[in-house]
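From the methods appendix. Each design record in this collection lists the discretized structure first, followed by the designed amino acid sequence. Records were kept in a plain field format so they could be parsed without special tools. The example shown here is representative of the layout used throughout.

RECORD:
C-ALPHA CELLS (180 positions):
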C-alpha cells in the first residue's frame, strides 16, 4: 500500500477550490494527505512567484510515497481513484493514468515508449500522473519557466535519468480547461 500526497495550488479561485476539496475528501482510500498551497492570491495570503513556486512548496511539505497535483477546479474522476491507483500500479517512478478533458471525453494518452518526440507531440497529463516523491530529492520544478517547468521535469526524469513509468487504464481526473 502506498501513501499519497495530493497537492492543490490555488490562486483566487475559491469556488473551484471547493470542488477540488470535495473530490479529494470523498476518496474511499484514506492513506493520503491533502496539501493546499495558495498561489499568490490577492487576499493577504502568502506571496509566491508563480505556480511552480507554489508547487515546490507543496512538494517540500509532502510526506507521501507518491505525489499528484490537482489544480483548483480539477477534480478526481470519482471517489475510487486513489483506491484504483493503489490497486493497479507496480511501484514505478511515474504512474500515468488518463484524464477527462473538461468532463467531455477521456484523453487518448497511452504511452508505449516515451521518447523526446512523444513528449514534444503530447506531454504527460500532469493531473493524471502520480510521481514518486523521491524523484524530487535532487530536482524541483524550474521556476524560471512560467508554464513548461513540468515538461522540463518529464524530460529530465524520463529521457535523461531513464526513470521507470507505467500506464494504468484508469481515468484519474476531470481537467478544467480554463487553467493556466
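DESIGN:
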Amino acid at each position: 500500500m502506498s501513501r499519497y500526497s495530493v497537492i492543490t495550488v490555488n490562486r483566487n479561485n475559491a469556488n473551484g477550490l471547493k470542488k477540488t476539496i470535495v473530490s479529494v475528501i470523498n476518496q474511499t482510500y484514506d492513506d493520503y494527505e491533502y496539501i493546499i498551497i495558495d498561489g499568490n492570491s490577492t487576499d493577504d495570503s502568502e506571496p509566491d512567484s508563480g505556480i511552480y513556486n507554489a508547487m515546490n512548496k507543496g512538494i517540500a511539505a509532502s510526506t507521501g510515497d507518491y505525489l499528484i497535483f490537482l489544480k483548483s477546479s480539477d477534480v478526481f474522476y470519482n471517489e475510487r481513484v486513489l483506491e484504483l491507483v493503489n490497486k493497479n500500479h507496480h511501484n514505478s517512478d511515474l504512474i500515468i493514468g488518463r484524464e477527462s478533458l473538461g468532463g467531455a471525453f477521456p484523453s487518448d494518452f497511452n504511452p508505449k515508449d516515451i521518447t523526446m518526440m512523444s513528449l514534444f507531440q503530447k506531454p504527460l497529463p500532469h493531473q493524471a500522473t502520480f510521481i514518486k516523491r523521491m524523484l524530487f530529492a535532487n530536482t524541483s520544478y524550474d521556476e524560471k519557466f512560467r508554464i513548461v517547468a513540468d515538461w522540463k521535469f518529464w524530460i529530465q526524469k524520463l529521457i535523461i535519468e531513464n526513470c521507470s513509468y507505467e500506464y494504468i487504464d484508469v481515468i484519474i481526473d476531470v481537467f478544467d480547461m480554463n487553467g493556466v
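APPENDIX NOTE: The longest helix spans residues 14-25.
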